[in-house]
Amino acid sequence: MGIEDRQGYTFFDDAWDVMKAYKFEGVEGDDFDDIRPNLDSVMAQFDAWRADQGDKPELRKPTVKFAGRNRKKPLRQMMLEGSGGPNILMQRVPGLRDRSLGGLPQILNWWGGKQQLGPYFREMFHPYRETHIPYEAFGGSLSMLNALNSPQGIATDINPDPINVGRMAQIGLNVPSFGPVDERGVPVNTKEALQDIVDRANAIRYKRDILGEELSLDEKMRLAELFTSANSRAFQGHMNYKNTPEWNKGFGIMKPGLRKVTGGRGEPSIPMDFRAMAPLMRNWDLRTQPMQDVSRELNERDDIFSYYDPPYAKRTFSYGDKSTADEEDQLQADTLSAAIASQGPVVYSNYLVDPDSREVLHGITDTLLDEGFDIHPWPRNIKTSKEGGKNVIEMLATRDIDWPGMGRKKRFSRGSWKDLLSEYPTLGDFVND
Ligand SMILES: C[S@@+](CC[C@H](N)C(=O)[O-])C[C@H]1O[C@@H](n2cnc3c(N)ncnc32)[C@H](O)[C@@H]1O
Description:
Order of helices and strands: HEEHHHHHEHEHEHHEEEHEHEHEHEEHH
Bound molecules: S-adenosylmethionine
Number of helices: 16
Largest sheet: 7 strands, mixed
Structural class: alpha/beta
Helix content: 25-40%
Strand content: 5-15%
Distance between the termini: 8 Å
Radius of gyration: 23 Å
C-alpha cells in the first residue's frame, strides 16, 4: 500500500508514539532538547507579551469533538443575573442537564488552577467513560472530577476544608452573601467582611481540628458556606494557614490572603446557589486520607483512571535516593511511586522546567520516561499577585492515554505526508512497508 493511499494517520502516529516520549506542537523526540527550541520560542512569545511587545500567545485548542461547551459568561456574572438561584446554573451550564455535554462548575478557586484542562480531561477520559472510575489524588477543588462529570468518582485531600465543601455540595450547597451591600443591593467585599467570615469559619474549624469534636451537619454546612464565600472573596482563592501554639494541630488557623477589590478584579461577594450540582455528585467518594493510603488501595484495581496533581516541585531531586529526601521530596517521590503503580490510565502534572533556574526537572521526567509515560509540555502563564503573572513550563505526563497532545497547532498537518517526508527522509523507509 502506498503512502498516498493511507487514510488518516494511525499507523504513523502509533509508531511514532512508541518511539518518542517528548511531544510538543507536532515535534517529538527522545530527549527534551529535541523540543526545547520550540518551547523556547513559545516562552519568548510569552515574555514579549508580558513586556507589552506582542499579543498573548494563543495556546491550546481542544478538539471540538469532545470539548465541553464552555459557558459564555463567568460564574459570577451568571449568579448575579440569576440572583443566585439554581435555575440560572441549570440553564447556562449544559453539563448540569446532561453529563455528556460538559463538566460541572467549579465551586472553589484552588492552587494549580487546572480547570482550564477540563476539555482535555474529558477527551482523555472519553474511551474510559463506560469502564473506569476517575480518581483525583490531590483533590482540592475537584477540578478533574468536575470536568469529567462522571456518575462515579473518588477524590482525596488531606485538607478537610475543600473536601467539606465538596461533601456539602453533594447534599446541596447554597452560599449566602454574608456581608454588607452597596446602594444597588450588591454585596461588597470589604476587608472587615472577609475577616469576619474567616473568623466565623475558624470558630467551627477550631472545634473540629483542635477540640477534636465531630461537627453537626449544620456546622459542616455553615463551614462550607463560609469557606466558599471567603474563597470567592480572596484573590485567587488563597487562604493562608498558620500553625500557632494554640492551633498546633491540623492545618492551623486560616487567614485571608489578598482580598479581591470591588471594581478592580470584580465583585466576588454574591450569593451562590450550587444546589443543582448535588444530584450529579451524589455518588462521589470524597475522602480526607493521605493520597498515599488511598492510592495503595485503588492501585489494586484495574478500573481506575487516576490524576495526580501534587503541589509543584520546587526543585529536582533524586528519585530512589531517600537518604537526602526532606518532607517535600518525599511527597514528590510518593506521588511518582503511586502514579507508576497504577494499573489503569494515569495523568500526572507538575513543573517540567524549574521556573527559577529554567532547568528541566530531570529527577521527575527521567523517572516518568523510564516507566513508560509520555510527557506533554504545557507552557502557560500562571496568575500571581504580581502584575503579568509568571511564565512557566508545566508538563502533563500520561500513560495508557491516547491523546493528541497539547500545543497551539501541529507543525505538520496530520495528513501531510509529503511535508513530513521531506523533513525526515528516513521516515520513507519506515512507513513504506
Ligand atoms: C495543587 S493542589 C491540587 C489541586 C486540585 N487538583 C485542583 O484542581 O483543585 C494540591 C493539593 O494537595 C493536597 N495534598 C498535599 N499533600 C497531600 C497528600 N499526601 N494526600 C492528599 N492530598 C495532599 C493539598 O492539600 C492541596 O489541596
